[in-house]
């Protein structure tokens, strides 16, 4: 699919310059030499990856044109990047963000910056289109299964099998919709740029006023900075989760003793600060993806360090169950790896909920985190065709059980 880009500028030489810079990347370029012409084009075509628009134009300037574009429902998701020569005019920049812009490019245009920013938005657009196509495909599959169930009601056993498949596809569709909505809402480019501006202007404000602000004002400013940092961490975790969902996983035999040793070496400072005791029994070699297993063990060990009891050094034991058993009716054999701690634990009724996206059992003021870590762990184990579960009691520690296939097809 060829991405479409709309260029809007009242000067033909500027349009030609931007077109020549972007043409080599294979985009389909449409041009308008005024805000009015841009609105005419958008009456008939709306599937643009983005719009590059000059701010200073006669009759309708860029801000006025953007406001009119976003008045139409079907055009509100098209990102707009303004092109301007007013790089230091903060009032103009703010006005542009109010009009709906997600970014600025300053004249004279740096070709590498232009192509990089356009590439990011086009990639996001293409991924969104693929996710929407997948959603339509899953909907079609569900409809097909519903018809098949109606046609084969005479066979009770077949009806049960088809109902099971139908429920699985419905659950997959609902999960895909939830992940798509959350990812599009939280990790889109128009969220990252304003966040960067917040942090930049907070730093400027601190540099200019730290000698004259009273303690209350300093505290308020510090809270703004901390909130922006937490939001940045949240965006990073969401992007990691979405990338994991799209990855194709390959497996190779790997000694888990070496892998856990590498993880603990990276976490040595955290372990030392917590005065923790980490005991690792002999672990097996299993077919895994080391690049995914490292963040799995890192997150689970970090959780044990984080949710420790006050005044009591954490004790963590990593071991393997001796028996290798079938699991949940699945085919093949599974090896069970246990990560046990002596922390604050949790009520067993939350053992399934804790693996949900953004699910937290404690306030962020008590324990830092984004609520995505365990969801990421579960996704990693599922990518290995395994299962992740938890057992715990309040104030009696927690045990996380990683069940992995002994063999991978």
Write structural notes for this entry.
- The protein has 409 residues and is an alpha/beta fold.
- It folds into three domains: 106 residues, Rossmann fold; 113 residues; 154 residues, Heat Shock Protein 90 (2-Layer Sandwich), CATH 3.30.565.
- It has twelve helices and twelve strands.
- Strands 2-1-3-4-5 form a five-stranded parallel sheet, with helices on both faces. Strands 7-9-10-12-11 form a five-stranded mixed sheet.
- β4, α4 and β5 form a beta-alpha-beta unit.
- α7 runs antiparallel to α8 and α11 packs antiparallel against α12.
- The longest helix has 41 residues.
- The two termini are 33 Å apart.
- 23% of the residues are buried.
Shape descriptor reads globular
Can you tell me the CATH superfamily of the largest domain?
A: Histidine kinase-like ATPase, C-terminal domain
Report the sheet-strand fraction. 15-25%
Count up the helices: 12
Low-pLDDT residue spans: none
SSE order: EHEHEHEHEHHHHEHHEEHEEHEE
SS class? alpha/beta
Overall structural domain count:
3
Largest sheet: 5 strands, parallel
Rg value: 27 Å
Question: What is the spatial order of strands in the main beta sheet?
Answer: 2-1-3-4-5
Distance between the termini: 33 Å
* Rounded average pLDDT: 81
The helical percent reads 40-55%
- CATH C-level label of the largest domain: Alpha Beta
Q: What's the CATH topology label of the largest domain?
A: Heat Shock Protein 90
């Amino acid at each position: 699919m060829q991405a479409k880009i709309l260029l809007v500028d009242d000067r033909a030489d500027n349009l030609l310059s931007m077109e020549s810079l972007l043409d080599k990347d294979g985009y389909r370029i449409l041009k308008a030499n005024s805000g009015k012409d841009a609105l005419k084009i958008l009456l008939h075509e709306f599937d643009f990856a983005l719009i590059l628009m000059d701010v200073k134009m006669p009759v309708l300037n860029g801000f006025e044109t953007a406001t009119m574009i976003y008045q139409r429902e079907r055009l509100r998701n098209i990102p707009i990047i303004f092109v301007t020569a007013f790089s230091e005019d903060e009032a103009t920049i703010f006005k542009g963000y109010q009009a709906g812009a997600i970014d600025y490019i300053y004249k004279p245009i740096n070709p590498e910056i232009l192509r990089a920013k356009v590439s990011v938005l086009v990639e996001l657009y293409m991924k969104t289109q693929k996710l929407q196509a997948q959603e339509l495909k899953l909907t079609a599959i569900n409809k097909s299964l519903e018809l098949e169930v109606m046609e084969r009601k005479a066979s009770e056993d077949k009806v049960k099998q088809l109902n099971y498949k139908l429920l699985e596809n419905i659950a997959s569709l609902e999960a895909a919709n939830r992940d798509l909505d959350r990812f599009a809402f939280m990790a889109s480019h128009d969220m990252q740029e304003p966040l960067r501006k917040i942090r930049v202007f907070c730093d400027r404000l601190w540099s200019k006023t730290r000698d004259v602000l009273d303690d209350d004002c300093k505290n308020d400013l510090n809270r703004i900075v901390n909130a922006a940092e937490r939001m940045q961490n949240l965006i990073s975790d969401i992007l990691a989760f979405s990338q994991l969902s799209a990855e194709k996983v390959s497996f190779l035999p790997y000694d888990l003793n070496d892998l856990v040793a590498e993880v603990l070496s990276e976490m040595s400072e955290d372990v030392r600060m917590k005065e923790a005791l980490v005991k690792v029994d002999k672990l097996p070699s299993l077919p895994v993806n080391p690049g995914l297993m490292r963040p799995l063990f890192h997150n689970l060990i970090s959780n044990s360090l984080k949710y420790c009891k006050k005044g009591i050094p954490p004790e963590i034991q990593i071991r393997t169950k001796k028996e290798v058993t079938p699991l949940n009716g699945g085919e093949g054999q599974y090896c069970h790896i246990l990560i046990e701690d002596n922390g604050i634990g949790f009520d067993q009724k939350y053992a399934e909920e804790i693996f949900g996206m953004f699910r937290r059992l404690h306030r962020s003021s008590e324990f830092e985190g984004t609520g995505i870590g365990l969801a990421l762990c579960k996704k990693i184990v599922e990518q290995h065709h395994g299962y992740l579960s938890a057992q715990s009691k309040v104030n009696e520690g927690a045990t996380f059980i990683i069940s992995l296939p002994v063999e991978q097809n």
